[in-house]
Amino acid sequence: MSDTAQTLTVVIPLRAKPRGGRKAMVTSGVLALERRQDVTPIKAVARASRWRRMMEAGRFATIDDIAAAEKINSSYLSRVLRLTLLALDVVEAILDGRQPEGMTLPALMGSVNAEWAAQRLASRL
Predict the structure, then answer these.
(1) What is the DSSP letter of 35?
(2) Quick one: CA dihedral 46, 48, 51, 57, positive or negative?
(3) Which has more confidence, 18 or 95?
(4) Does 73 reside within a domain?
């Protein structure tokens, strides 16, 4: 038996993929990591839907009323509330984790085109 040290090199092909403001290490062939859902836009879409239902039900009359009740900034609330204008298939893609890489929460909150066809074209769904 030899006392000399031996080196073993293991190569695992990885790539960094942006996920919710962070980078996730993804290996090819591992679908669970590649299709992982970004929780941030999912939560935002859910909150926007809840706030819209609250206003439609008459629980709150204005965005400022909801913001005060939720203890958040009314400007942020109004930007998130725009997500209720997203096309249904775009929302479904977000919930399934199939949205394009550039479709992050900051990008969605920036400006939402109210026309669903334009949204689909922009998101390439």
Answers:
(1) T
(2) negative
(3) 95
(4) yes
CA distance 60 to 76: 17
- The answer to whether the CB of 64 falls within 8 A of the CB of 72 is no
pTM of the model: 0.66
Question: What is the amino acid identity at position 52?
Answer: R
Contact 61, 90 (CB under 8 A): no
Look at the chain and report how many structural domains it folds into: 1
8 occurs within a structural domain? no
86/14 Cα distance (integer angstroms): 33
d(C-alpha 63, C-alpha 53), whole Å: 12
| Residue written as token pair 């074209």 | 121
Which residue type sits at 41? Answer: P
pLDDT tens across 53-87, in order? Answer: 999 999 999 999 999 999 999 999 999 999 999 99
Q: How far is residue 95 from each of residues 70, 79, 118, measured CA to CA in Å?
A: 23, 19, 20
Longest distance between any two alpha carbons in the chain, whole Å: 82
